[in-house]
Amino acid sequence: MIKVQDLHKHFGGFHAVDGATLEIAEGSITGLVGPNGAGKTTLFNVIAGRLPPTSGTVTMMGEDITGLPPHDLFHKGLLRTFQIAHEFGSMTVRENLMMVPGDQSGEAIWNTWFGRKKIIEDERALLKKADEVLEFLTIDHLKDEKAGNLSGGQKKLLELGRTMMVDARIVFLDEVGAGVNRTLLNTIADAIKRLNEERGYTFCVIEHDMEFIGRLCDPVIVMAEGKVLAEGTMAEIKANEQVIEAYLGTGLKNKVKEEAGA
């Protein structure tokens, strides 16, 4: 579905993404892991149109989408979430969801004068869909709560719910488990799995929680120093010498080996 070819993103002399090449298969839940500073979030930002690449290409279903702005990618079904949730804190959870779809009839001045019926019908449909999304995510009891009052995990579920309001085709999740307790993290994992299996969503997930990645993701792609270092199943990744060294460093890697052999 997504193909990244020889992608570079430079900030002056710093090469945050340095020739990354990878594919995200349609219908997969692909994990993207690596040590801090590996270039994972920068790669997400380039694919999702928040940053222009220095060079290289990104294609989606064979279409070149390199450098397209986020709003164009949104309409193509490519969405991303962030390490820190971006909710409208003073609005209710349900209202946050209803804000998502673009080109709503109420946005047109003409309709506010002559299309009131259409606006009312559309709002009813949005309300119904928002309630269905909240029920799917098991947070329907929070529908009238101000979004700013939610816990970190509940906000991550709300962000996932936003992607459901527009029937996304591929969703990039950036550290969805950051600051989330284990119970809510399991709820998030279940929702991702159901969206993948029942609705055909494709996901690419950045996460430092290897248990979470191992439960959900196949394949797993490892980045280090802006490059793709390895790809495979979680078992293959855990056994990969280059991956171990990238995470632990040569000294610690040798110490782990010595302790394992002792």
From TrEMBL:
Domain ABC transporter: 2-250
Transport as UniProt keyword: yes
CDD domains cross-referenced by the UniProt entry: ABC_Mj1267_LivG_branched
Keywords recorded for this protein, A-Z: ATP-binding, Hydrolase, Nucleotide-binding, Transport
Name the record gives this protein: Lipopolysaccharide export system ATP-binding protein LptB
InterPro entries named among the record's database cross-references: AAA+_ATPase, ABC_AA/LPS_Transport, ABC_transporter-like_ATP-bd, ABC_transporter-like_CS, BCA_ABC_TP_C, P-loop_NTPase
The UniProt record lists the keyword Hydrolase: yes
Domain of life: Bacteria
A Pfam short name: BCA_ABC_TP_C
Enzyme Commission numbers on file: 3.6.3.-
